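Notebook entry, cofactor series.
This is the third protein in the set we're modelling with a bound small molecule. For this one the ligand is zinc ion. I'm keeping the input format identical across the series so the outputs can be compared line by line later. Sequence and SMILES below, as received.
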Amino acid sequence: MAAKIRMKKKNNKFGRKKKCRFCINPKMEISFKNERMLQRYVSDRGKIVARRVTGNCAKHQRRVANAIKVARFLALVPYVREHYR
Ligand SMILES: [Zn+2]
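Returned structure with ligand:
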Protein backbone atom coordinates (compact mmCIF):
# COMPACT_ATOMS: atom_id res chain seq x y z
CA MET A 1 0.00 0.00 0.00
CA ALA A 2 1.26 3.36 -0.96
CA ALA A 3 2.43 5.50 1.86
CA LYS A 4 -0.18 7.97 2.88
CA ILE A 5 1.82 11.03 3.54
CA ARG A 6 -0.28 14.10 3.39
CA MET A 7 1.42 17.38 3.49
CA LYS A 8 0.14 19.52 6.27
CA LYS A 9 -1.44 22.73 5.12
CA LYS A 10 1.35 25.19 4.67
CA ASN A 11 1.49 27.59 7.51
CA ASN A 12 1.79 31.26 7.09
CA LYS A 13 5.18 32.60 7.98
CA PHE A 14 3.62 34.36 10.91
CA GLY A 15 1.53 31.42 11.99
CA ARG A 16 -1.88 32.93 11.38
CA LYS A 17 -3.98 33.74 8.45
CA LYS A 18 -4.38 37.37 7.61
CA LYS A 19 -7.86 38.64 7.07
CA CYS A 20 -8.99 41.35 4.80
CA ARG A 21 -9.02 44.55 6.81
CA PHE A 22 -11.85 46.02 4.81
CA CYS A 23 -14.10 42.99 5.22
CA ILE A 24 -13.64 43.08 8.99
CA ASN A 25 -14.35 46.78 9.22
CA PRO A 26 -16.87 47.78 6.54
CA LYS A 27 -16.78 51.37 7.72
CA MET A 28 -13.29 51.78 6.33
CA GLU A 29 -13.79 53.27 2.94
CA ILE A 30 -11.37 52.84 0.09
CA SER A 31 -10.91 56.19 -1.52
CA PHE A 32 -8.15 57.89 -3.45
CA LYS A 33 -8.57 60.83 -1.07
CA ASN A 34 -7.54 58.74 1.90
CA GLU A 35 -3.85 58.79 1.11
CA ARG A 36 -2.72 57.81 4.59
CA MET A 37 -4.59 54.55 4.24
CA LEU A 38 -3.26 54.04 0.72
CA GLN A 39 0.33 54.56 1.84
CA ARG A 40 0.01 51.37 3.82
CA TYR A 41 -0.56 49.44 0.60
CA VAL A 42 2.39 50.96 -1.20
CA SER A 43 5.88 49.61 -0.66
CA ASP A 44 8.74 51.92 0.24
CA ARG A 45 9.72 51.74 -3.40
CA GLY A 46 6.31 53.00 -4.43
CA LYS A 47 4.94 49.71 -5.67
CA ILE A 48 1.49 48.44 -4.81
CA VAL A 49 1.88 45.68 -2.24
CA ALA A 50 0.67 42.27 -3.40
CA ARG A 51 -2.45 40.65 -2.05
CA ARG A 52 -0.59 37.72 -0.58
CA VAL A 53 1.33 40.21 1.56
CA THR A 54 -1.48 42.53 2.57
CA GLY A 55 -4.02 39.77 3.14
CA ASN A 56 -6.76 41.66 1.37
CA CYS A 57 -9.49 39.81 -0.43
CA ALA A 58 -9.63 40.05 -4.22
CA LYS A 59 -12.47 42.53 -4.26
CA HIS A 60 -10.88 44.96 -1.86
CA GLN A 61 -7.38 44.58 -3.25
CA ARG A 62 -8.75 45.58 -6.64
CA ARG A 63 -10.37 48.65 -5.14
CA VAL A 64 -7.19 49.57 -3.27
CA ALA A 65 -5.13 49.16 -6.44
CA ASN A 66 -7.51 51.35 -8.41
CA ALA A 67 -7.56 53.97 -5.67
CA ILE A 68 -3.76 54.03 -5.62
CA LYS A 69 -3.67 54.48 -9.38
CA VAL A 70 -6.02 57.46 -9.15
CA ALA A 71 -4.05 58.86 -6.21
CA ARG A 72 -0.82 58.54 -8.19
CA PHE A 73 -2.34 60.52 -11.01
CA LEU A 74 -3.27 63.24 -8.55
CA ALA A 75 0.27 63.10 -7.12
CA LEU A 76 -0.95 62.02 -3.67
CA VAL A 77 1.04 58.79 -3.89
CA PRO A 78 4.36 58.54 -5.76
CA TYR A 79 4.89 56.30 -8.76
CA VAL A 80 8.48 55.55 -7.72
CA ARG A 81 10.76 56.69 -4.99
CA GLU A 82 14.15 57.26 -6.48
CA HIS A 83 16.14 58.00 -3.37
CA TYR A 84 16.08 54.34 -2.36
CA ARG A 85 18.82 53.53 -4.80
ZN1 LIG B 1 -12.31 42.30 1.70
